[in-house]
Every structure is written in C-alpha cells, then in structure tokens.
Amino acid sequence: MHKVKSIKRVNRKNRLVILSISVIIIVFGVWLSTDNIYKFVKANSVVKTDVPSTIVTEKKQPKKIESHKELYPTRPEIGEEIGELYIPKLGATLPIYHGTDEDELARGVGHFAGSVLPGENDNSVLSGHNDTVFRKLGEIGEGDQLIVRTSAGEFTYIVNKVRIVDEDDRTVIVPKPRATLTVSTCYPFEYLATPSERYILVAYLDSKKLS
Question: Any catalytic annotation for residue 111?
Fold first, then answer.
C-alpha cells in the first residue's frame, strides 16, 4: 500500500513538471510570435512612410533646364545686308552690310566682319564714308541714341564717348567687356584731301527688343 502511494506521488510530480515545461514552451512561443509580428509591422510601416515622402520631395524639386537662344543662328556672308542703323537725332535710316570693303561702303554702312554682330556681347564695329552715309555724324555726341535693327531684334545704344584717333589706331576694334557699338568715319568732315584721322562714337547697349 505504501508503495502504491509513492508511485502516485511520483506520477503527480511528473505531471506537474510536464505541465510546467508545457506552459513555459507555450509562453515562449507566444512571446516569439508577438516579437516577430511587431518587427514585421514596424518594417512595413517604415517602408510605407518613406516611399511617399521620397516621391513628394522629388516633385517639389524639379530639375531646372537651362535654355539659351542665339541671336543669330546663322552668320551672314560678306556683302549681305544685315539690318539698318537708325539715328533719331538726324532722322536718318541707313542700311548695314556685312563687310567693310569698298563694295559695302559704297552702298551704306559697313559692319567689320571681325567683330560681333549688333546686339551681341562685345564690340560691334560699324564704318562709313563721311561724304555719304556719315556726312552729319559729327552732330552726334554723348547721350544720343543709335538704334540698330536686325533679324534678331531692335537694339538701342547710348553714345558714351566721342574719340578722334589716328587712322591706324587699332583700339577701335578691340574687344569690350559689355555689348558695345563702335561707329567710325573719316575726320575731319570738311577736309577735301584724304583724312588721316577717324571720328569715333562709342555707345553702350541700353535696351533691346528681340524678334
């Protein structure tokens, strides 16, 4: 009888041990599952939050595309008419031809082919005879307007300086740091023999109306 009671006591202890182990396993399993579910939910929430914010940022900062329009897509040929010079103070409108050979100067104002075209940055040089197109150029001085109209638009220059230089003075055609119009003719105007000097108007671009 005592032996039977001992066996029952042992079986009861074994059941308690097994039950305890089972409870521990179940609790551990529940904890592990909960932890994994939390990590999974957190990971998905991060992905869902980050993706839209990246897209919004890209939309708020579009790429800027710089565009540049050339005033003259094609360069003129020598002898080609490129525009006209209007001098408000004289009420004179004079045709401009590309080139400064006698053929161009006989027809109007010549544009020195080694300089930029009117309206472009740097020094655009025009020349003409003082007994034809520039007969009255001596009446033009500082503050007067010189307006050039070409296929690119209308460019208004204001005379900034008047110079009288030797006929061999090459400073007339040197590059300039800003849009400049240099107009040259022989000087003095009333001199009948071949003039040895040049009357120079240096004008800076004041405004423009592009075509």
Answer: no
